[in-house]
């Protein structure tokens, strides 16, 4: 360490092991802070707290989906059906709610149930039929899109007022949506870092052979990761419904790529075993800030894609350097 | 040893992999406060037995008894019953911390599903202290040395209150001070009443450490007795003596043309540079234990992992070996040990695999002639006796022996013929019939004037096939034996004890080699 002066600053008086282990997460959050400062300097509208709150709210849907994806990716898998699960979940809830408050429990239950069923099927395809995760969930993506479009190519159903008001409601000045998100991320952090299940996800993704020898039930763990992912994705679909009012079959089309972008920016290794919930939160906020910023300075969406692509490549380049060292 | 005193016993264990017998009727006991050594040559079945006793593999027949009762072992169950293992390739997750690894798979011990960090931290620190390891709990395992990783594994076993600890050849990956440290820890564990199964093929260690030794040969127990009733000579004699059957002797090579010369080839910083010559029409055997540096040498010759310094001369001219294509162009073919991963594309057909190295010869202006490809494959399949002889089946469906014939065939059909062929464990996992066919292919190679380097852990095979044998140990060439001097005992003694002068010291002082 002493031969690397740049890093020795960090190790003096710092819990250096912690810094090293959290480097990817810290990087994502540094980027976020940098973006925030940059946007407040460049764009006047961005200095109002209302816009920042709006940005945070905009990050809830992608953030939740990214958290869902995190659980699968960190365990060494990948779930490409995540966007279509959110789509089906949103459509199911919209149709069953049909604009009436008393239908909310049924609609929410059914939507989450759909997620559960898809997760179980994905999990079985990967762990029991032993289809490569990429292919299994890719197939599921098409099946679910097919189901959605054959049900309707147009928006269907309608969210109930109490349900869609969640988007605007606030308690003691704090938007309900942000409270929900705080709770949600807290739970995710807790599961990933403070429970045996969380440790097992990392172990299976890091080295499933070693995990098996250590007595971890590896197939059970990866199965569970798919179930958790799909259920959370279904919840993300519900959340999006608070904003769209109606269920649309093309809701989740772009969600998949955005989700994976957030996961990667958040510092999660697509090979599994590395990354953190807090990093993924940072990654999804980075995307939200970028989107808001480009909207406010009225740059078109394609340029935004270009910037996102460059950020991904730059970050992966940095991670790669760390691996080599 | 009386059965009721044994903590863990194996009783009549049988295990086959495909048609290959790995273990037959193996029984042994591990008692408390005892270090039990398990010795045997490469491929004698030591690792298989370890896998069965830790629940990583299931035996075909026989039982594992824990405290005298039969146990159906899985990795989980084995740990529950107090059987811990320290593997050669540590079974820790590199991206996780020491603390996380110590408790991996065992977090539920604290009831509920939530982790009691303070308690975990305390227990892990105590266990590491116990064995005198100064390792920070928050260090990522990936940054630890192999020795430290083994200490972490020992600590893990202690935290889980293991009563039996299995060490799978720690001396294959450790040396010097680090090994001494592990030995001290092992002896301390014995003093605390643990039963230890120590696997090794380094005999000096056995005499330093163990109370009892069980010798495995070809998957059978040939001896099990207290170490003080054994001598080094006796142990070596017990380990060797495999039959390979009669083979007609090849006429001695003329040795008038040197096809390959290694001049002070440096393969690693703690190794002496390697020099030797290979003649046309000669089989040069490379004997030594697993980890003795033979595969490293093969990789350097094949341009897979270039040497650090020194020169390789072909027909007197130095050549550059930076990548595999350099080696192939220079007429050197290396046939790797792991044929499934490095020698073949298993999902492709036999035809495609056979033609892969000859695509240039088979094509005109960039187009591969399907007809020429089929002809080449059909001829090769016939010539090398690949069964089944269909050329369009996926190579992965063939038996190990026939896969190996395809690998060899791929290079033998290539024009111009390679003058130097390096074979790394060509008959590993191959049944007896196919073995002989591979030997015949080697004979054909030398008959047409190629020089062959044969790396093999099967001593009878090395002796039967080679004109000359170089013995390697710990990365160095420690001896050269001519055809007339070849015997399993001589080779094994060199391989196990290193140089002759080291033999004297290790017998006198009982020091680790």
Task: List the main descriptive attributes of the protein structure presented here.
heterodimer, A: 325 residues, mainly alpha, ABC transporter involved in vitamin B12 uptake, BtuC, two-stranded antiparallel sheet, 15 helices, 74% helix, globular, disordered N terminus, B: 513 residues, alpha/beta, Rossmann fold, 2 domains, six-stranded mixed β-sheet, 19 helices, 35% helix, disordered C terminus
Descriptive report:
The complex is a heterodimer of chains A (325) and B (513). Chain A has helices at residues 5-11, 16-21, 23-42, 49-74, 82-97, 104-127, 133-151, 161-164, 176-194, 196-206, 208-213, 218-244, 255-265, 277-296, 301-324; strands at residues 170-171, 174-175. Chain A is built from 15 helices and two strands. In chain A, α3 runs parallel beside α14 (277-296). In chain A, β1 and β2 (174-175) form a beta hairpin. Chain A has 325 residues and is an all-alpha fold. Chain A has a two-stranded antiparallel sheet. Chain B is α/β, with parallel strands linked by helices and 513 residues long. Chain B folds into two domains: 3-239, P-loop containing nucleotide triphosphate hydrolases (Rossmann fold, 3-Layer(aba) Sandwich); 258-509, Rossmann fold, CATH 3.40.50. Chain B contains 19 helices and 22 strands. In chain B, α16 (432-447) links the parallel β19 (420-424) and β20. In chain B, α4 crosses α5 (146-159) and α15 (400-412) runs parallel beside α16.
